[in-house]
Amino acid sequence: MNWIALLGLDAWVARWRVLLAEGAIAAEDRLSLARLEWLEQRQRLRQVLVLAIVVTAITVVALLVLSLAVLVHFWDTPQRGLVAWVLAGLWCLAWIGTVVALVSSVRRAGHAFALTRQELHKDWQVVKDQL
Asked: Where are the transmembrane segments (predicted)?
């Protein structure tokens, strides 16, 4: 004896089966989206790591050249000092440019999984509307 059929719950059970199937498909889609966004995030993190290493290296070089500029500045002629200060200034500009690139990359990395969060938010709104 089929109690579900006798109680008239066939349509209700069928609707829940369809909802569960759609939910499983939606969950699979969200996982695929999260996987794609993870690949993008991993690339950004690699870029941040490389830029951090470059910033560190340029900082060391800039400090060495700046120290050399201070030493040479007090040497025999003023031309040596001018050249040393120009070199130190150029290294400092390179350092500033690299830091700006690093900060920009970190800010972009802060928007990780935006599409996944947006889709999950839409899904949650649909669920709330149906309740």
From this structure: 48-75, 81-103
Within 13 A of 101's CA, how many CA atoms are on the CB side? 16
Q: What is the pLDDT of residues 35-59, one digit of tens each?
A: 888 888 889 889 999 999 999 999 8
Which amino acid type is present at position 86? V
Asked if 62 and 91 count as a contact pair (C-beta separation under 8 A), the reply is yes
**CA 10 centroid distance within chain:** 48
Looking at beta carbons, which pairs linking 36-40 to residues 24 or more positions away fall under 8 Å?
37/112, 37/113, 37/114, 37/115, 37/116, 38/113, 40/112
Residue 53 near residue 60 (C-beta atoms within 8 A): no
What tokens appear for 90 in the block?
Answer: 């150029």
| Cβ pair 47, 107 in contact under 8 A | no
Residue 127 has pLDDT above 70, yes or no: yes
Spatial contact of 68 and 81, defined as CB atoms under 8 Å apart = no
CA-derived radius of gyration, the chain: 30
